[in-house]
Amino acid sequence: MGRASRPPGREFQALAWTARHPGFVAVPLVVLGLVLMLGPLVTGIGLGVLVASVAVWGRSHPASFDRFAAPALRATWRRWTVYRGRRWAQLMSDCGLTKEHRHTGDLLVPRVLRVRSSSASIDTVYVRMVRGQDVAYWQERSSVLWEALIAHRVAITRHRPGVVAIVIEWELPFTRTIPAPDIPETTEDVDLGAVEIGDNERGEPFTAPVIGGHRLVAGASGSGKGSVLWSTLRGVGPCIRDGIVRVWMVDLKGGVETEQGAPLFHRYATTMPAALELLTEFRDAMRDRQDDMRDQNVRACTPSPATPVELLVIDEMAMLTAYGDRTSVRDALRLLAEVMTQGRASLFAVHGYLQEPSKDVVDVRELFTQRICLGVTAASHVDMVLGEGARERGALADEIPGDARHAGIGFVIDKGSRLPVRFRAAFVSDDDITELVQRCTPPPDADVIDLDTERGAA
């Protein structure tokens, strides 16, 4: 059978288009059916009430609206106003992404299959390429595409054979540095399940839990990991002061970035031997609490001075889990794995901060239930931290500039929608840390020990 010298008839092209877009026919038919059944007045009133209800929902409860309704509404609107018709065909032609059919002479335009709009500033457009194109071909034209769209940035990845995912970042939502969150006055003002760290891209407080799981924060040098760490400690400050949260700090960079907050820490280690001793003590404390829970028939502890949240913070985790001597690294990983698989009910939590998130560096990466990705140096790091497909869905953490103006900007995955949410952690200055130490240092206690000092004295 020879090749066709002309395209299918327009009527069959229209039928094929309708099959791909059933809503275009279904919605008018539903409205027409309602008019015939209920009459135009009742139908008009019903549609008006529906539109008004959606508007009231968006104004009265933005959190649920932005989670459930806004992504679908935004994606539908942009699909029909930006990514279709002559406007889309002209865009593809101007960027050199169309081809001329060699037999019929028709212009072949890449077809939009789906649009996802995870936030007001990021779209992911899934496009079927014209035959003869590949991902590299599109990536070569990404800079031309984002200039044509007047977007902030465009990233292109392969979704499946013949289909690319175009992540379009329309604008950066953060134009100013966010000041450090206020320290709550009392423990009653602290919600350990939602500690404020900064703002999200919708201008709402960005919060993350301290209990109920373990946190991994990945980001290149200067990306703002310290902002996440100190904002968290400011958020739980009264609980540290009153013994409801005890911080066990490991900083194998010599304590340069954490020494200022040393009075806040229940245990403190800045060398590998002291860190292993601290981890062993942390693990043993967990076992002791588990024994008490069994004796008292308690399934889960409640944070209190009697059963405090034991928070292990590891700054630059790779020094502990990959770059030390082999025996020390093996022991550290064994202790961490034991705590992270058993510590949730007994209120033992681990927060790890690192630059390189690969499996070779963090062998216990999959045990972290909370993932935060700040600016990283490689596209592959995004999926390593946030999960497969996160970058394709809009988490362009590798595209965040590495300068101080963009420090603290990162992404998390919303548990409900599985879409990336961009945030900016608050900037915590030395004065803010000093305020935290002055207001929230626990009372003198013989148990508060700097393990490196103790080892030196021995």
From TrEMBL:
Residues 203-383 form the FtsK domain. PANTHER family: DNA TRANSLOCASE FTSK (PTHR22683:SF41), SPORULATION PROTEIN RELATED (PTHR22683). PROSITE patterns: FTSK. ATP binds at G219, A220, S221, G222, S223, G224, K225, G226. Keywords: ATP-binding, Membrane, Nucleotide-binding, Transmembrane, Transmembrane helix. The lineage of its organism: Bacteria, Bacillati, Actinomycetota, Actinomycetes, Pseudonocardiales. The chain crosses the membrane at residues 24-57. Pfam families: FtsK_SpoIIIE. The keyword Signal does not apply. It comes from Pseudonocardia parietis. InterPro entries: FtsK/SpoIIIE/SftA, FtsK_dom, P-loop_NTPase. This is S-DNA-T family DNA segregation ATPase FtsK/SpoIIIE.
